[in-house]
Design a protein that fits this description.
GO terms for molecular function: ATP binding; ATP hydrolysis activity. The protein has about 250 residues and is of the alpha/beta class. It has 2 domains: about 160 residues, Rossmann fold, CATH 3.40.50.300; about 60 residues, no CATH class. The protein has 10 helices and 10 strands. The strands form 2 sheets. Strands 6-7-8-3-9-10 form a 6-stranded mixed sheet, sandwiched between helices. A 4-stranded antiparallel sheet has the order 2-1-4-5, covered by helices on one side. The protein is globular, with a radius of gyration of 18 Å. The two termini are about 35 Å apart. Bound molecules: adenosine-5'-triphosphate. The site of adenosine-5'-triphosphate has 11 residues, from helix 1.
């Protein structure tokens, strides 16, 4: 398989004050390969969000090692932050309500590439808006409040990928969006993956239909422990664990 871009070994995480400390991740091992979509699935509270935040250095781990492109993230957190994009459940939380969409997408580009001309920034904004099927002509001058939830999520995705991240984390990106609008978001992710074949996509999702559609591999978490990891077909069509079978059965109800 392709290169490992992010590797976690023995990741432990605790929450809470000293006396009531509760462990939420138990010695989790995870590899994320360049260019793949790794889906992280599991019941509510199983640790999906915590694991992905720890992997990207947004939260500290209490045990274990995480390396980005072979370098421990404790020594180089800045580089990982800069080379990762984040998409969350609520798109309006990622877009400043006072800014037009153009500015929300352009701002990180200007920050990271002070040498880029106005035209170059503007061209990249248009390019990423087209990737998520938002016509730059109209949408670049809209404010978030002018957009539907699905459009706002696609604008948030455009913002997250504008600077060509090596890793894109999408945490339940469709769960707050109407069912009818979800397909365009999935299409946007597919288009981005084609345009950026080395970018790794880590997708946290409850929706096994979405996962089957987009993921190459799946990691199943249960109460902070890895139940199984395998290709999408292995995990969804021939699960090895009872817990995975339960998740699949529940999803088909
Ligand atoms: N900041 C925090 N402080 C204390 N406990 C936390 C914090 N964040 C998460 N937890 C706890 O850690 C456990 C794992 O939470 P996490 O959000 O990672 O699970 P999840 O699988 O993403 O859940 P969901 O699918 O409901 O979003 C849960 O018991 C949660 O209550």
């Amino acid at each position: 398989m392709s290169d490992i871009v992010l590797r976690g070994r023995g990741i432990d995480k605790y929450f809470g004050p000293k006396k009531r400390r509760r462990q939420v991740l138990f010695s989790v091992d995870v590899d994320v390969h360049a260019g793949e979509c790794l889906a992280v699935i599991g019941g509510s509270g199983s640790g999906k969000t915590t694991l992905t935040r720890v992997l990207l250095g947004l939260e500290s781990a209490d045990g274990g090692d995480i390396a980005y492109q072979g370098v421990g993230i404790a020594d180089d957190a800045q580089r990982l932050r800069r080379q990762s994009g984040l998409v969350f459940q609520d798109p309006f939380g990622s877009l400043d309500p006072r800014w037009r969409i153009e500015r929300s997408i352009a701002e990180p580009l200007r920050l990271h590439h002070p040498d880029w001309s106005h035209e170059r920034v503007s061209d990249r904004v248009a390019e990423v808006l087209r990737m998520v099927e938002l016509d730059p002509q109209g949408f670049r001058s809209h404010f978030p409040m002018d957009l539907s939830g699905g459009q706002a999520q696609r604008a948030a995705i455009a913002r997250a990928i504008a600077d060509r991240p090596r890793i894109l984390l999408a945490d339940e990106p469709m769960s707050a969006i109407d069912v009818a609008a979800r397909i365009r978001i999935l299409d946007s992710f597919q288009r981005i993956r084609q345009a950026e074949p080395d970018m790794a996509l880590i997708m946290v999702s409850h929706d096994l239909g979405v996962v089957r559609h987009i993921a190459d591999r799946i990691m199943v978490l249960h109460d902070g422990r890895v139940e199984e990891t395998g290709t999408t077909a292995e995990v969804l069509d021939a699960p090895r664990c009872d817990y995975t079978r339960e998740l699949i059965r529940a999803a088909s109800l």
